[in-house]
Amino acid sequence: MKKVLAVAVIIVAVIIVCGISFTLFKFFWSRSHEPPKLTEEQQEAEKRKVRKENLIEIIREIVKKDTPATTLSVGIYDFNNDEYFGYNDQVAQHAAGVSQLLTATYVFNLADKGTIGLKDKMGAYDIETQLQFLVNQSSTDSLDYLFERFSATDQNTFAKKIGMTATDLSLGKNLMSAKDAVTLMKKIEKENLLTESSKTKLYSYMQKTSIERFFSPILNQANLTYYHKAGSWEGESHDVAYVTDAKNPFILAVFTTSRSGTVSPTQMKEIAIVVLEYFTEI
After folding, report:
1. How many domains does the chain have?
2. Beta strands in 97-235 (DSSP E)
3. 40-64 vs 266-281: helix crossing angle, rounded to 10
4. How far apart are CA 185 and CA 252, in angstroms?
5. How does pLDDT run across 271-281, given as a tens digit for each residue?
6. Using CA atoms, how far apart are residues 85 and 147, in angstroms rounded to an integer?
7. Do the domain assignments include residue 234?
8. Which one of 26, 204, 250, 255 has the lowest number of neighbouring Cβ atoms within 10 Å?
9. What letter does residue 256 receive in the DSSP assignment?
10. Between 2 and 230, whose confidence is greater?
11. C-alpha to C-alpha distance for 87 and 82, rounded to whole angstroms
């Protein structure tokens, strides 16, 4: 009897030990296979990811409802989070006057290196004045003078060097993507492409320009400081703006081309509104 009882006790003990072991195994196994908890920074990044996806979907809807627009590209850069995203943004398009920002940046860069002098004679003025006319007024005369002195080939080489992948200023092309426009603006502001003096001059040309009907009304209503270069040509309306004093500074580029030959600024304003809302919320 004692022997049977001892065996029973042993069996019960074994069962208990096995049960405890199995429970512990399940506990530690489940813990080891749980996804790691996200840091606060990672959680915020996930929230922004969802908001970015929602923003791109809204932009798609804006594009859909305006049938005359055959192409529309958007590039966006978030300075605080060092994040770029866009819509149809790597397509090379005729850049109209936006490409003149590259020309001006290239020439200022040469001046900063001491290769040329901004006070060198060019036409009836000097190089610096021609740059002002080019950026602020989209002067075709200034563009002609500058391209006589600074070749498209050299400007294209400069563009590739700073990370612009779809840009070609060769005669008859004048191509750039919305992403390239953002890249250029980002390099100017963030990566010491120009000296502070040259950057200040360039930015002064990028306010109260000859084309203020695309983003400008929306940004002005929000009392924001911004620098931009717009272009308009035979159904093309493009704009790239660096918005500085929002809670979250950003760059926005929109390139749009119309089948009808005329582009209403409505789409660009609507996109500026939803992008501004995005940066207000994050």
Report:
1. 1
2. 121-122, 125-126, 175-176, 226-233
3. 170
4. 9
5. 999 999 999 99
6. 32
7. yes
8. 26
9. E
10. 230
11. 18
